[in-house]
Design brief:
By secondary structure, the protein is of the alpha+beta class. It is 28% helix and 27% strand.
Length: 177
């Protein structure tokens, strides 16, 4: 069964995010969407790569245990002990990733929600690169995690950017929509 998928794009000059195309969607996974975006953008594995399962699961479990006190919930953000959030009613919070993270060129873990798998896929990427990839994909929840677990930034299905960790929380507090 093919479902329509909206592809989002931003127009920095106007500050508007709009739907640029509707294309048939054959129920591809988030990983399929990301791989298609990587091909389209021509990003190298040095900039954006999926971690092998053993490494990815280890990163996933470390981040989960650090930021979520117990269990393995689908939506981590519902279980953060402390966090700050900003709503983006237009669904364009992802456009601001590089404003919220301390260093847009630092490699981070990009953990994408896919509850059909044993653990969420984990990518090694820069915030600048993952922002470009997100722009090419349909909406999904994700977690951007600093590899030393000092901070986390995520986008929820409520069009909310949620941050954990002093530096991210400060930047979100300072942000005015």
């Amino acid at each position: 069964m093919k479902l329509p998928v909206r592809v989002r794009s931003s127009h920095p000059e106007s500050g508007v995010t709009q739907i640029t195309a509707i294309r048939p969607h054959a129920m591809s996974s988030v990983k399929d969407e990301i791989h298609a975006a990587l091909r389209k953008l021509g990003l190298s594995a040095q900039i954006f790569r999926e971690l092998p399962d053993c490494e990815g699961e280890s990163a996933y479990r470390k981040a989960l245990r650090h930021f979520v006190p117990v269990g393995e919930p689908r939506w981590w953000w519902e279980h953060f002990i402390s966090s700050v959030s900003v709503d983006f009613p237009a669904g364009n919070g992802w456009e601001h990733i590089t404003e919220f993270v301390p260093d847009a060129s630092e490699h981070v873990w990009f953990i994408v929600e896919d509850d059909s798998l044993a653990f969420y896929p984990v990518y090694d990427a820069t915030p600048t690169a993952l922002r470009a990839v997100i722009a090419e994909c349909y909406g999904f929840e994700y977690y951007i995690v600093q590899r030393e677990l000092q901070w986390l930034l995520c986008e929820t299905h409520h069009n909310r950017m949620v941050g954990v960790g002093r530096v991210i929380e400060e930047r979100l507090r300072e942000y005015v929509v």
